[in-house]
Design goal:
It is built from 8 helices and 7 strands; from the N terminus they run βαβαββαβααβαβαα. The protein has 236 residues and is α/β, with parallel strands linked by helices. The longest helix has 16 residues.
Length: 236
């Protein structure tokens, strides 16, 4: 019998990219955007997990309808439970996860927002091109700027104009406000029924074969995913 001792060294886990999709205002399309981000990453071959922190559990509903032959997305329930500590879902993220998408709750409290920002690499803020949404989201962005976690880091902030119709006057109003805030990372997602279909069927637009019919929506999601990747980080 050999007296050699074999030592098994577990390979290091791949680096995890953590994306927070958030806005203090409800109804801006956080869950729709989160599901499409997660499906896009999964289609690129990344081990992907979606954390659903929204009490409505829209992301979990979407995952429950996801066809089994599509790229796998691991679901993690992230809503607060009285019997569990806040952010306890952190210990339930599957090992080897490379892309973590967090769908935050609407009306998120300042202390909770700071805790989440501290644990992510990219912050994605969807907003609708309407006066009410633009006003509320502008204040929310200012609140993020003031958090300790954001001020003391080079975390990336990307604003997503959601359900955008470029013929609408609010599209131009939105862009004026974003320029005033000196936000360069902006993506416009078109107002298309395909996103409603995707939520209903448990798919993302990047699960659909490329088609001229869906090209605008697919190109917008592709642009958003590209902006999130490490090689596109701004210089420190």
């Amino acid at each position: 019998m050999s007296d050699q001792v074999r030592v098994y060294i577990r390979p290091p886990a791949p680096p995890m990219r953590r994306i927070l999709v958030t806005n203090s205002k409800g109804g801006c399309g956080k869950s729709t955007l989160s599901s499409n981000i997660a499906s896009a990453f999964a289609n690129q071959g990344h081990v992907t997990a979606l954390v659903d922190c929204d009490p409505q559990q829209t992301g979990s509903f979407w995952l429950s309808r996801r066809p089994g032959d599509l790229a796998t997305i691991h679901g993690v329930v992230g809503i607060d439970q009285p019997s569990r500590p806040m952010l306890d879902w952190l210990v339930r993220i599957p090992r080897g996860t490379e892309r973590l998408v967090i769908d935050s709750p609407g009306g998120i409290a300042s202390h909770r927002l700071n805790d989440l920002i501290e644990r992510v690499d990219v912050i994605v803020i969807p907003l609708l091109p309407s006066s009410i949404d633009i006003h509320a989201t502008t204040e929310f962005i200012k609140e993020i700027y003031l958090t300790t976690s954001f001020r003391n880091s080079n975390r990336r902030l990307i604003v997503v104009g959601n359900r955008v119709d470029k013929r609408n006057k609010y599209f131009h109003q939105l862009n004026r406000i974003l320029r005033r805030l000196e936000l360069e990372d902006v993506v416009h997602i078109p107002d298309s029924y395909i996103f409603l279909r995707c939520i209903d069927e448990g798919i993302g637009v990047m699960d659909i074969p490329p088609s001229p019919r869906y090209a605008e929506a697919q190109n917008a999601v592709t642009d958003l995913i590209r902006k999130m990747e490490p090689e596109h980080e701004p210089s420190a």
